[in-house]
């Protein structure tokens, strides 16, 4: 497994982490024993970064992850990252919400506490919640502060609020066909020593080769309403998938492994956190690390994906 430092912190994290939104009704892993097997496999194959959030399954994800790490005796060997949603960002709720996260995770510290999204509808001042998080660092309850889904302007504002700490990461949507983070956010991170945690690095499975224009997610699937899978968009995505398959065949890799490898090669700031609904998917994801496609292959994917225009105006 490859490792990279998380921003300016002393946390060395696996370049492929495990996102755990799937431990929820949204994605269907609602049986604890199934979740434990996924966590155990992740540890076995070298993953040490586990990303969760208070809102995933209304606490189910944190509870499952914390219980599994405790039963596996692995808490001290891994990096646990969680998130407080924008609604929990008044000063009092930052403290209360963090206490609830600690209880669900069954731990007395959180390695990386992230602001899940800015409090767009609640009017909490940026410095109010950032200073509260900094106080929690001083208390030893959290080790580092991160952001999630923050634009550059708010990354800058959030950082300016802190007196003694520096944010170490911003978690954003980033994959081979949704590359808007490259315009401003990734350059900002590279210039200022932040890490980028790439969520949805497989574009909700669109880049795995599982789906075709004639075999899209069923209506009841959480993916069905995503613009990625609208026929007009997916036809473009599928052209990239076909190229991913070609590159993968030359390296003995799956399309998903190639898609993740492309992100890892894109910038030293990138850490990918794909989800997994089975231990087998965990093992497949890890196959994205410890190898490199050729520059010509990387460039071919760069050029093909640059032509994709995902429109969210689908109704």
Number of helices: 10
Number of strands: 10
CATH superfamily: NADP-dependent oxidoreductase domain
Structural class: alpha/beta
CATH structural architecture: Alpha-Beta Barrel
Residue stretches low in confidence (pLDDT < 50, at least 5 long) are: none
Q: What composes the largest sheet?
A: 8 strands, parallel
Which sequence of strands runs across the widest sheet?
A: 3-4-5-6-7-8-9-10
**Please, how many domains?**
1
Helical residue percent band: 25-40%
Shape: globular
The CATH C-level name is Alpha Beta
Q: Which band does the percent of strand residues land in?
A: 5-15%
Give me the strand/helix succession: EEEHEHEHEHEHEHEHHEHH
Describe what this molecule looks like in 3D.
The chain is built from 10 helices and 10 strands. With 315 residues, the chain is an alpha/beta fold. It is 39% helix and 14% strand. The strands form 2 sheets. The protein has an 8-stranded parallel sheet, covered by helices on one side. The protein has helices at residues 32-44, 60-71, 91-105, 126-138, 152-160, 185-192, 231-251, 255-266, 279-286, 295-306; strands at 3-5, 12-14, 18-19, 49-51, 79-84, 110-115, 142-148, 169-173, 195-199, 270-272. It has one domain: TIM Barrel, CATH 3.20.20. The model has no long low-confidence stretch (mean pLDDT 94). Helix 1 links the parallel strand 3 and strand 4. Helix 1 (32-44) crosses helix 2 (60-71), helix 1 (32-44) packs parallel to helix 9 (279-286) and helix 7 packs antiparallel against helix 10 (295-306).
């Amino acid at each position: 497994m490859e490792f990279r430092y998380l921003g300016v912190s002393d946390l060395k994290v696996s370049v492929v982490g495990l996102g755990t939104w799937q431990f929820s009704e949204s994605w269907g892993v609602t049986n604890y024993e199934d979740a434990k097997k996924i966590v155990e496999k992740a540890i076995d194959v070298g993953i040490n970064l586990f990303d969760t959030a208070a809102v995933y399954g209304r606490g189910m994800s944190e509870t499952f992850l914390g219980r599994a790490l405790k039963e596996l005796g692995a808490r001290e060997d891994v990096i646990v990252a969680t998130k407080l949603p924008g609604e929990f960002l008044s000063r009092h709720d930052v403290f209360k919400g963090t206490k609830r996260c600690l209880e669900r995770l069954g731990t007395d510290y959180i390695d990386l506490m992230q602001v899940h999204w800015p409090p767009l509808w609640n009017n909490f001042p940026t410095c109010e919640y950032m200073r509260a998080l900094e106080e929690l660092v001083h208390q030893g309850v959290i080790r580092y502060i991160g952001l999630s889904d923050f634009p550059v302007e708010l990354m800058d504002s959030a950082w300016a609020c802190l007196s003694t700490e520096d944010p170490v990461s911003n978690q954003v949507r980033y994959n081979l066909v949704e590359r808007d983070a490259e315009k401003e956010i990734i350059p900002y991170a590279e210039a200022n020593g932040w890490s980028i945690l790439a969520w949805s690095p497989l574009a909700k499975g669109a880049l795995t080769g599982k789906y075709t224009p004639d075999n899209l997610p069923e209506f009841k699937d959480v993916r069905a309403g995503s613009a990625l899978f609208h026929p007009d968009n997916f036809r473009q995505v599928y052209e990239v998938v076909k190229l991913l398959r070609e590159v993968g065949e030359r390296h003995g890799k799956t399309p998903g492994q190639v898609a993740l490898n492309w992100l890892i090669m894109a910038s030293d700031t990138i850490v990918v956190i794909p989800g997994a609904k089975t231990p087998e998917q965990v093992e497949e994801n890890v196959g994205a690390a410890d190898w490199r496609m050729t520059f010509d292959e990387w460039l071919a994917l760069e050029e093909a994906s640059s032509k994709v225009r995902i429109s969210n105006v689908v109704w």
